[in-house]
Amino acid sequence: MYLHGTSRINDAGHLEIGGCDVTELKAEYGTPLYIMDEQLIRRRCREYMDAFAASGLGFQVAYASKAFSVMAMCRLADEEGLSLDVVSDGELYTALQAGFPAERIHFHGNNKTPFEIEMALDAGIGCFVVDNFVELELLQAIAASKHVNVNILLRVTPGVEAHAHHAYAATGQTDSKFGFDIGNGTAFEAVKQSSAKDNLTLLGVHSHIGSQIFETEGFEMAVERVADFARRVKEELNTEFRVVNLGGGFGIRYTEGDTPLQVSEYVSAITGAVKKYFAGIGTKLPEIWVEPGRSIVGDAGTTLYTVGTNKTIPGVRKYVAVDGGMGDNPRPALYESKYEALLANRANDPAVETVSIAGKCCESGDMLIWDVELPETKSGDLLAVACTGAYNYSMASNYNRIARPAVVFVQNGQSDLVVKRESHNDLIANDIIPARIAKQTVTK
Ligand SMILES: Cc1ncc(COP(=O)(O)O)c(C=O)c1O
Ligand SMILES: N[C@@H](CCCC[NH3+])C(=O)O
């Protein structure tokens, strides 16, 4: 397994992250456990901030909280000077409760409810990313009823087919549920309508082409299309885009075949394309906003499991089961995502067999890794799966009524619990048994 950030194998042959031995983390917090390397998260935040600062362009780096939304993470993003992208009332609530400044929050989503819009307006968030005509009307009406003015970006689909890790993670193509299409004229119409509306201030446009993308071409092509669009809007409507948000999507290394660029390389490709394509269109260079999620938290996360049972099918395969699975990491089942693993309590033992790591849910598809080389595992061993910081905790479920794991931040030999493990009581906290079917206590 590739060792990300502060991960290393210590003298005892144990995996250590942020100076914390995972066998001790298991003793203190149990498993499954999401372990987040705080130093690596901060490093990623700084890589973005520094690279943009070096570009000379105005910018905001908004952490896409959908990747991992918990209050402690909102605090880190705030401390590092990032803005925040939220996509629901729940993410917004989490951010506000964490004390994240509302003016640096951007609200996304293709179906914001009136409740969510009101909540965000009352909080005074910095910007709405408007996705469609229905939302444009609704937002204006609610803003007017509250006598407030709202900054907006229009989400556009630039018609770029991104090489995302799965079709479900590509969003820049015309046939997408998100945004106004540049190619068919709806984006132009949206600019026209929003410029004419009271209570709305159009800052510019937003384009997000997809996720887990390694090449820069898709982003550069998106910038070119958006710049062409900006030119037309300037010429025909005399409207200027002060802000261009290029979304997230920057890839990370999950397994050996993955070839991500450095954060600074993605940023310089984007800012270079902005300088190139926006030059000479008759407007000032826009401020550039981005929304990285995975590339901020993905490789900082490791999930620690305890090995339980195994099953060998002679000549076919050996299954090794762990105490978590698709409940805490649905990505292999959803996208066929690949991960690397390590026997975390005997990390220096030589690999002697190829096994497949199964979860404990009642689904054949509940597999975390097919075919990984490991030392011989036995019940009670610890298995670490790397690169689980993004879209694991945030996409976790209680399928099979399995409680969601705890999350700890580790740094400088210290571990801090940031999400408690769910209890049995948490699982039934919202259940109600109607009186008519409640168990009667029969007294004789
Ligand atoms: C609008 C938007 N912004 C930002 C992101 C974050 O993407 P990533 O985690 O790939 O950086 C996503 C998710 O793909 C998204 O849909
Ligand atoms: N959730 C996805 C990608 C989509 C991200 C949000 N648009 C993943 O786990 O890779």
UniProtKB/TrEMBL annotation:
As its record notes, the protein acts as a catalyst of: meso-2,6-diaminopimelate + H(+) = L-lysine + CO2
Q: Does the UniProt entry include the keyword Amino-acid biosynthesis? A: yes
* Cofactor(s) this protein cannot do without: pyridoxal 5'-phosphate
Pathway(s) the chain acts in: Amino-acid biosynthesis; L-lysine biosynthesis via DAP pathway; L-lysine from DL-2,6-diaminopimelate: step 1/1
The record ties this protein, via SUPFAM superfamilies, to: Alanine racemase C-terminal domain-like, PLP-binding barrel
Q: Is-annotated flag, keyword Amino-acid biosynthesis? A: yes
Q: What class of enzyme is it?
A: lyase
Which residue range or ranges hold the Orn/DAP/Arg decarboxylase 2 N-terminal domain? 40-297
- Name the Enzyme Commission number(s) assigned to this protein: 4.1.1.20
Q: Where does substrate bind?
A: R294, R331, Y335, E363, Y391
**Which key words are in the record?**
Amino-acid biosynthesis, Decarboxylase, Lyase, Lysine biosynthesis, Pyridoxal phosphate
Task: Name the InterPro entries on file.
Answer: Ala_racemase/Decarboxylase_C, DAP_deCOOHase_LysA, De-COase2_N, Orn/DAP/Arg_de-COase, PLP-binding_barrel
The molecular function terms in GO held by this entry are:
diaminopimelate decarboxylase activity; pyridoxal phosphate binding
Q: Residue positions of the PTM N6-(pyridoxal phosphate)lysine?
A: K66
Q: Name one GO biological process term.
A: lysine biosynthetic process via diaminopimelate
Binding residue positions for pyridoxal 5'-phosphate: G249, E291, P292, G293, R294, Y391
Could you name the domain of life of the organism this protein comes from?
Bacteria
Catalytic machinery residues: C362 (proton donor)
Task: Give the similarity note.
Answer: Belongs to the Orn/Lys/Arg decarboxylase class-II family. LysA subfamily.
Q: What does this protein do?
A: Specifically catalyzes the decarboxylation of meso-diaminopimelate (meso-DAP) to L-lysine.
Outline the subunit composition: Homodimer.
Q: What is this protein called?
A: Diaminopimelate decarboxylase
Q: Which organism is it from?
A: Paenibacillus sophorae
